Amino acid sequence: MKTVLRTAAVLLALLVIAVAVAWFGFLKPAPPPISAADRARLTLMPLPAELELRDGVLALTGGLAPEFTGLSTPRLERAVARFTDRLPQDTDTAGESPSRLRLDCACTAAAYPALGDDESYEIEVSEREIRLTARTETGILHGLETLPQLAHEENGQWVLPQLTLRDRPRFPWRGLLIDVGRHWMPKDVILRNLDAMAAVKLNVLHWHLTEYQGFRVESRVFPELHEKGSGGEYYTQDDVREIVEYAADRGIRVVPEFDLPGHTTSWFVGHPELASAAGPYVVDTAFGVLAPVMDPTREEVYAFLDRFFGEMAELFPDAYVHIGGDEVVATHWEESERIRQYMAEQALEDTHALQNHFTVRLQQILAGHGKAVMGWDEIMHPDLPAEGVVVQAWRDHASLWASARAGNPAVLSSGYYLDHQLSAGYHYGVDPGAIPGAVTVEIDAANWRGWSGTLALSDEVYEFDLYFFGAGEELRGIMTAADVSTGIPEVTREGDRLRFPLDTRFGTVKFDVRLVGDSIMGTARIAVFDMEVVGSRSGGSDMPDGQPLPEFRTIEPLTPEEEANLLGGEACMWSELVDATTIDSRVWPRTAAVAEKLWSPRALTDDTDDMYRRLLVIDERLAQLGMMHRSYRDAMLGAMVPPQYLEPLRTLVAVLEEDKYYNRMALYGEHLYTTTPLDRIADAAPPESYVAYRFGQDVDAWIETRDTAALARLREALETWAANHERLKPAFAASERAREAETHSGHLAQLADLGLEALTAVDSPLGAEAESEELFSRAQGPHGGTILAVVQPVRRLVEAAAEASATR
């Protein structure tokens, strides 16, 4: 999160036709490069570009003997050593000869990875040999991350499937931003996150090094920057070199960010002469969009920055330096008569033009040091050079595409903000090549028909407008719901029956409706839920007295040349509400879903259920790599309650989620600072509960197929939750921090009782329907900065039982 004032739209109800993904182009996608049968056997993440499994396996009973048949470099040898340490092997291998791992790198060594490197590789696994081939060191590195994910136990031994795999990334820029300015992250945090990034083939660490709250890198040219601006928490230049080399060993570029001209208080503590308003300054401890801003009118400022970036250019080898450029508060510029006079002399019409003037000067300074500029989308301006400037879009997709149209390479972060605490499935639905809510279908104003109506799911009713254009095989449509218009490029018509899919971030909604006179009626199905569709004619080219055709927000597809400017994306971990203890839990495993979206072919990233199947496997692998996204929790909970209450508190917290966006800030009022401890229930709770996800999967399996194994798991979970509240009551009385979850604990027990009744009762378990509905309403509310994640799955279970009872 950049600031508490950053825009955060309220998350619409999960099953509502909401923010839609408009697919670029109008042709049906080609058949997927991996068959459904092969995909079902894989737990790889990200999925490779092409793969074909064969019968048979390669047994690892004798281990692997690496052999370089092409280039061998120290970097590759270190990578092979890491690979062999991680590859599972059977311990009893006496007398077994090892299989051969042939590494064929037909390349020359590079000092550091760079944008545009060939990252492709091929793997061939036969009965006794693995062959890994690539044109670059980076390709070999990626292949060595894939192989351990292929290993699995079969008949009591570790094996690799025999296969042919060809892999390459969809986008060349696949990053993770880590903000160390607001809360300090020690070196070991960065190093272990680099290991996790490599495992899922992310290739850019975007290191946000300066903020209002801290200047985090040593400058030997201007030592007062870090000495006065960091509170003693900064990376030495030796630390930076170690991290850069560690990243390069894993095929990862390091792009530093020095946020300018706003977000700059920490610069001014040691050098107030850089500021637009007189000091003195102190490092900020509160969060927000603050007023301090650099003075873009003084040549002394540019001379200072020239020397500073000259030093940093030697320290950071990547071709890009991020200059921030976001959320510039112009108050100090507007209040300064001297700055206003400068703007008049330079014919700068407003403060945005003044910022662009500053950006262009920085671009020239960095070019002089062999660096290209990257900045947040606020740097976009008609006079911004296209060459040498990458734009990072955090506000919306529209700025991403606008940058690409202007000729600026562009990177997407809108929709990938990890500090919003949204689900992996939500992030998985975000694509740089598709603008949510944009209509790309062709609108025919001379041949159209429209309906207005409602979508009803249980007691929830939502209005929609539906429009169809053309006829026959050329029939297409637009649906508007929740103030969002979504194109429908494919419509199948059989007589009066219309069937069409509507792609949303929450899944594909499948419509099956009939036209009866001036009415439209039928169903819209998402997952296992059916919504009733009812509507009537509202207008059309055949109805002179009907409503006129509205104007839709239409966006032309990018040309191939413009589309080539979409470099990829970055997940962003802003640190107002995370520290070194909790950061892993907010980054992983959700970032693996973003990594797959940016690496794998688009045709393979539309199955959210399959993504979760594999995400739960990578979650365990990340823990084995040393990530602390799960292990930190017991220590935090153990500090809240005596040992005898740890297990039931763990059970409760496992089905909680941190409240979405920045809602938990209400816990602190005006008392949230960089020094505020992040050790509450909201910090121990995950951003997404996979216990609740699995429970929901079992609920759906029981409803759909009466799966007896799912039923057994449901009973076990519900019985545990039903008894858990009584076990925790003494802990709530004794612990103020634990008490923040007491309301959720009570609701969980009540929901569990209702769920058990749904599994066993002959009559409707709803009892008094109003009372049950009131429980669901109360239980889904936030408490202590968290929400209870099992409310909707229990509701589905209860409603299905009620429906079954009503039909008996």
Keywords:
alpha/beta, 808 residues, 26 helices, 35% helix, eight-stranded parallel beta barrel
- The SS-based structural class is alpha/beta
Could you describe the largest sheet, including whether it forms a barrel?
9 strands, antiparallel
Strand order of the largest sheet: 20-19-18-17-25-24-23-22-21
Terminal Cα separation, in Å? 52 Å
Helix coverage percent: 25-40%
- In total, how many beta strands? 28
Tell me the overall shape: globular
The parts where pLDDT drops under 50 for at least 5 residues are 1-29, 762-766
Q: Determine the mean pLDDT.
A: 91
* Cα-atom radius of gyration: 28 Å
Total number of helices = 26
Strand content: 15-25%
Brief characterization of the structure:
The protein is α/β, with parallel strands linked by helices and 808 residues long. It contains 26 helices and 28 strands.
